[in-house]
Amino acid sequence: MSGALLVCGTHSDAGKSVVVAGICRWLAREGVRVAPFKAQNMALNSFVTREGAEIGRAQAAQAAAARVEPEAAMNPVLLKPSAGERTQVVVLGRPYATASAASYQDMKPELLPVVLGALEGLRRRFEAVVCEGAGSPAEINLRESDLANMGLAQAAGLPVVLVGDIDRGGLFASLYGTLALLSPRDRELVRGFVVNKFRGDAAILAPGLAELSRRTGRPFLGTLPFAPGIGLDGEDSLALREAGEGAPGGDVLRVAVVRLGRMSNFTDLDPLLFEPGVAVRFTRSAAEVLDADLAVVPGTKATVEDLGGLRAAGLDRALAARARRGLPTLGLCGGYQMLGRRIVDGVEGEVPEAEGLGLLPVETVFEPEKVLARPSGRAPLFGDEEVSGYEIHHGRTARLGGEPLFVTREGGGEGCRVGAVLGTSWHGVLECDGFRRALLGWVAGVRGLGWEPGDFSFAALREERLERLGDLVAEHLDRDALLGIMEGAGRREGAGALP
């Protein structure tokens, strides 16, 4: 086959990402060489490709669904909200500019050729490209300079499928209203609807679907059932999940994750959500942080600003009390920097220098060039387990004492440990099953708990979730209609008007 499709949603978190991933996995299983694409993504959860490019974490997961290696062209523009009202603009995997909301709108005309070039390159190399929109295509205040929704569809001749989330209510009004707010020219590109997150009696839903199809002239391509636990890596705080399950006959490890204002790459904690006998809570409560078996200070896109917020909430005192009592604490990337003595930031924040929490003997100096890498090594302090991850940071952190947490493949030291306080610049290390279990076993030992690790592979679990997404598409969407839309022309005569 040869074709492309743009999946839009009535609002953020309607299910665009999972629908794109499901279609990618279904097509890949059918032997189609397929790639995902999102022209413009706003996300603080990002990923580093093998060539050292930064893209949205969801696009990396969609590439895994498509069974291809993620690359910069799959997410040519990534927006990362930073301190104050500023946003870092990442283009083709590299920092490009820092912009306000207004100045970014002025930047879009120069980014459109980059977006279209990336998409065209994918279409030349793959048989199918499944594109994901951003937010809603009915954001009429942004339509003139739109890069990701109907502006992209018009420029690239893409047919559009509109996804609505029935679980939130108001499905029919959302679908009809979105279509009604589009211009007649844009409306012609919308070829059908998909219902997402349905639970209930399909017979009761059917008359509404038929009536909306009659009023709009668009078919429903299928109804995807509510399927908890199979979502992709989240893009923003709307996707935060918490979990906890007691292990049979064992104790529960309580993990408190400090909820920062510009928290980034909180997907680092995803493996803990599936570990039996581990309860994870994202919190701003100093009492909960002090009481937890393991406290985690995650990454952030505004290290100094979030450090100030942490202090204002009294969390600095809770973390200091944990260190005095020998209670395990882990800092990841920006969280690691906060645990140190000093942060010099002339790049991301508005405050040039700040005193850290002083719990680790490290100092961080920010540089304009961002570190983007895929390091690996071992953890000599935790059974010498193999560990790998990825780095995304402007800060260069120097260890002035303590022990390195990891030894790199090249023989260097990375991260720091003093007593029960640990820190690392590497994201994704908890996905390494051996290291994660060794770390949690150490926490249980420090706390005197009878916790037993699980035996699942996180990589296998992620693959199983992608397979389930492919199953949902194969079983609940009209595959022939979907293929026809992808292979046919984007515009359909007579489809623009609404009664």
TrEMBL record:
Domain of life: Bacteria
Keywords, alphabetical: Cobalamin biosynthesis, Glutamine amidotransferase, Ligase
Biological process according to GO: cobalamin biosynthetic process
SUPFAM superfamilies in the record: Class I glutamine amidotransferase-like, P-loop containing nucleoside triphosphate hydrolases
Task of the protein: Catalyzes amidations at positions B, D, E, and G on adenosylcobyrinic A,C-diamide. NH(2) groups are provided by glutamine, and one molecule of ATP is hydrogenolyzed for each amidation.
UniProt similarity note: Belongs to the CobB/CobQ family. CobQ subfamily.
Protein name: Cobyric acid synthase
